[in-house]
Amino acid sequence: MGWFDDNHPMGSRAEEEMEDAIEAMGFNKWYKDPQPAGGSSEPARVERPESEWDESKWRKTNLRDGDTMAKGKAKTMYLLTDKDLLPLQYQRQTNSRGFDNMKMYRKREVERLSWKKYGGPNGLKAAKEDKNGVKPASPKKASGSGKAKSSASAATGAKIGVLGKGKGKAENGPAEEEY
Fold first, then answer.
1. If 52 and its partner were Cys, which of 71, 99, 120, 163 is the partner (CB 3.0–4.6 Å)?
2. What pLDDT shows up at residue 111?
3. pTM above 0.85, yes or no
4. CA distance 33 to 87
């Protein structure tokens, strides 16, 4: 609060009443989805060479304490599934169309959960690189003529063989009659 609010007799009382009103309306209420019977609260580990499973060796997070993020963004940024996010608490928030259906998770908890799944910040970084197509070189095949054709390119090749390569314009041929 500012100088006026701190020095005004109504300042701290108004702040307390505002906090009570927000809590009564349920804006700061945290929810938790029910856990499946016999399910574990820890996500399944994804083993990689870059993973470091000792949490004491992980770097400190760069995220602020109160920051939240939407469920969809949490899933794409941190490569998590719905099942992985079940143990975390969330707040409900209205979306741009006015419906109360967004789940907002604490960023720090989401990041920590992804580190537990992928083996720290380095494991998560390697998983993101694999997902984005930066994969290690695979060994060359011993036999074969090189690249294999996909079914789409094979179908296109078959059409060209039957129809020929045209310029896209139909020409009047001897079989067509004019009316």
1. 120
2. 94
3. no
4. 7
